[in-house]
C-alpha cells in the first residue's frame, strides 16, 4: 500500500504511482493554460495555481477514470477543466468574502485589486471553456449545468432562506449546489470520458456529490473548531461574515434557555472582534458541534453505501478512503 497520493488514501503502489504521474501532467497543463501574453494576467492567473493545494477535484477525475480506461483521451484535460473552474471561483469568493489570505498566500484581491481578482477568475473560466470544447457537447453540457448550480448556490447563500423555507434544508441545498456540484462533475467526467458503464457514471456522480457536501461540512466545522488556518482560511471567517453554517443552525434551532446568549450573538453583527471572539468560544464548546459532526458522518456513510455498489477495483478503495478522511479531519 502507499500514501503517495493526496490524503494518504488506501491505494496500491501501482495505482498511487500512476495517479501521481498523471497529477504531475495536470499540474503542467494548469501552468501552461494559466498563461497569457499579458504579464499581469499571467502573474495573477498563476497566483493560486502556484499556491498549490491538494488538487482534490483533478484527483477525483483521475481516480474515477479507473472504472473504465484511464488512458482515454480527454481525462487529463477534464481534470484541468474542473481545477480551473474551481480556482476561478476562489478568486470571486475571496472578493465577496474580502478574504486577506488564501492557501497561506496573500489573496489576489488584496495583492492587486478586487477588479483584477474578478477578471482573473473570469479569465480562468474562459480557459476552462476552451479546453472543454475539445471534450464534446455532452461534456460542455455537464459543465454548464454544474456551473449554473454553483452560481445558484452562491446566490442562495448570499440571499439566505426565504421566510417559509427551513434554514437547514436551505443550507444543505446550498452546500450541494455551491460545492457538491463541481465535485460531482469531477467523478462524472472521469468515469464518462473513460467509457465506464452508465451505472458506474451515475453512481460515482451521486457519491462524489455527497462526498463534496461532506467536505464542505467538515470545512465549516473546522472554520469554527480549528485554532489555525487548517481549513485553508482564517478561522471564524464564516461567522464574521454572518454565514449560518450547520453548527450555527443547530444552535439557533435550540429551545434551551442556556443558549440565549449565544443565539443573541449569532444573530448580531460579529464584525466586532470582541463579540466575534466570544461567539467563537461559546460555539466551540457547544453540543451543536457534536451534532454537526454526526451529520457529517451520515453524509460520508451515505456516500460509502453508494460506492459499495461499484466494481471492486483499487480505485473504489480510494473513494472509500475519502469517506474516512473527510470524517477524521475534523477530529
UniProtKB/TrEMBL annotation:
The keyword Methyltransferase does not apply. Pfam families: polyprenyl_synt (PF00348). Keywords: Magnesium, Metal-binding, Transferase. InterPro entries: Isoprenoid_synthase_dom_sf, Polyprenyl_synt, Polyprenyl_synt_CS. Its cofactor is Mg(2+). Belongs to the FPP/GGPP synthase family. This is Polyprenyl synthetase family protein.
Amino acid at each position: 500500500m502507499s500514501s503517495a497520493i493526496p490524503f494518504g488514501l488506501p491505494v496500491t503502489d501501482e495505482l498511487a504511482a500512476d495517479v501521481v504521474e498523471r497529477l504531475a501532467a495536470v499540474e503542467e497543463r494548469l501552468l501552461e493554460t494559466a498563461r497569457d501574453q499579458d504579464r499581469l494576467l499571467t502573474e495573477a492567473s498563476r497566483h493560486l495555481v502556484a499556491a498549490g493545494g491538494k488538487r482534490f477535484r483533478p484527483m477525483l477525475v483521475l481516480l474515477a477514470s479507473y472504472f473504465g480506461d484511464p488512458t482515454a483521451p480527454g481525462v487529463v484535460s477534464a481534470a484541468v477543466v474542473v481545477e480551473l473552474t474551481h480556482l476561478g471561483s476562489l478568486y470571486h469568493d475571496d472578493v465577496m468574502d474580502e478574504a486577506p489570505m488564501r492557501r497561506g498566500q496573500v489573496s489576489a484581491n488584496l495583492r492587486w485589486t478586487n477588479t483584477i481578482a474578478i477578471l482573473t477568475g473570469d479569465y480562468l473560466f474562459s480557459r476552462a471553456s476552451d479546453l472543454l470544447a475539445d471534450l464534446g457537447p455532452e461534456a460542455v453540457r455537464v459543465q454548464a449545468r454544474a456551473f449554473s448550480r454553483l452560481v445558484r448556490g452562491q446566490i442562495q447563500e448570499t440571499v439566505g432562506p426565504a421566510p417559509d423555507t427551513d434554514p437547514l434544508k436551505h443550507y444543505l441545498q446550498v452546500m450541494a449546489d455551491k460545492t457538491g456540484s463541481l465535485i460531482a462533475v469531477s467523478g462524472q467526467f472521469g468515469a464518462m470520458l473513460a467509457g465506464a458503464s452508465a451505472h458506474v457514471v451515475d453512481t460515482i456522480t451521486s457519491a462524489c456529490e455527497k462526498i463534496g457536501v461532506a467536505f464542505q461540512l467538515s470545512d465549516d466545522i473546522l472554520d469554527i473548531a480549528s485554532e489555525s488556518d487548517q481549513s485553508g482560511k482564517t478561522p471564524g471567517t464564516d461567522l464574521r461574515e454572518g454565514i449560518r453554517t450547520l453548527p450555527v443552525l443547530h444552535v439557533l434551532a435550540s429551545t434551551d434557555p442556556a443558549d440565549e446568549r449565544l443565539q443573541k450573538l449569532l444573530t448580531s453583527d460579529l464584525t466586532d472582534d470582541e463579540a466575534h471572539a466570544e461567539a467563537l468560544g461559546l460555539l466551540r464548546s457547544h453540543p451543536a458541534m457534536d451534532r454537526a459532526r454526526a451529520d457529517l458522518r451520515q453524509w460520508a456513510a451515505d456516500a460509502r453505501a453508494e460506492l459499495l455498489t461499484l466494481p471492486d477495483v483499487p480505485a473504489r478503495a480510494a473513494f472509500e478512503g475519502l469517506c474516512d478522511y473527510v470524517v477524521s479531519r475534523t477530529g
